[in-house]
Design a protein that fits this description.
It is a single chain. With 195 residues, the protein is of the alpha/beta class. It has one domain: Maf protein. Helices cover 30% and strands 24% of the residues. Strands 1, 2, 3, 4, 5, 6 and 7 form a 7-stranded mixed β-sheet that branches. β5 and β6 form a beta hairpin. The chain is globular. The structure holds inosine 5'-triphosphate. The site of inosine 5'-triphosphate (ITT) has 20 residues, from β3 and α3.
């Protein structure tokens, strides 16, 4: 059984990763509390996922799994994209980011509120080349937040074909079954199964 360290400092992400990878013959361990913080200095999700995974390999000597996710909104030319965590400023809360997004989309009609969540997962190893997988989810941005579940932009993201519910109005398993992160993790499971 291979042990991987989860590079994420975001407990919501870690929970979703564990839930989707539960059937695999791998052990997932939490990021050590004293692991150095990684500045996300790259301008792509791939670049930042690799930075985070490689930093954890360096800190722990073990294979590491990192996720970098962005929300790409059509009417905003793909913003907030790779800057989704810091959209409303360096220490912005989820609520600040959601409010900024709704303000920027004020008056934008439904068709132009199309958006995509994209997750890139990088696995880095001490002695071999990294693996990269991608997962996406298409949907649109609502005009007001709805639902208490999930995290981040979930209350304003309505996936296509989800009966009008936002991701925050779904149970964790329902979100994981269709989400960007769930899709990336299922692709990762296939890659790990071949190793
Ligand atoms: P780590 O870098 O420690 O993994 P992070 O929260 O900083 O955690 P990202 O750099 O990938 O993660 O930032 C992406 C932001 O996008 C995150 O802060 C959330 O606001 C949002 N986000 C990521 N995944 C999401 C999801 O499944 N649903 C809603 N919002 C999400």
């Amino acid at each position: 059984m291979t042990t991987f360290v989860l590079a994420t400092a975001n407990p919501h992400k870690a929970d979703e990763m564990r839930a989707v990878l539960v059937g695999l013959d791998v052990q997932l361990i939490e990021r050590p509390v004293d692991a150095p913080e990684v500045e996300e200095t790259e301008d792509t999700l791939e670049g930042n996922a690799l930075l985070k995974a490689r930093a954890l390999v360096e800190a722990t000597g073990r294979p590491a799994i990192a996720d970098d996710t962005g929300l790409f909104v059509e009417a905003l030319d793909g913003r907030p994209g790779v800057f989704s965590a810091r959209y409303a400023g360096e220490n912005a809360s989820y609520r600040d980011n959601v409010e900024k997004l709704l303000a920027e989309l004020e008056g934008v009609d439904e068709r132009r509120r199309r958006a995509q969540f994209r997750t890139v997962i990088a696995v880095a190893y001490p002695q071999r080349d990294p693996e990269i997988v991608v997962g996406t989810l298409d949907g649109s941005i609502t005009t007001a937040p709805r639902g208490e579940g999930g995290f981040g932009y979930d209350p304003v993201f309505e996936p296509n074909g989800a009966g009008g519910r936002t991701l925050a109005q779904m149970l964790p398993d329902q979100k994981n079954a269709i989400s960007h992160r769930g899709n990336a993790l299922r692709a990762l499971a296939l890659v790990l199964a071949k190793q």
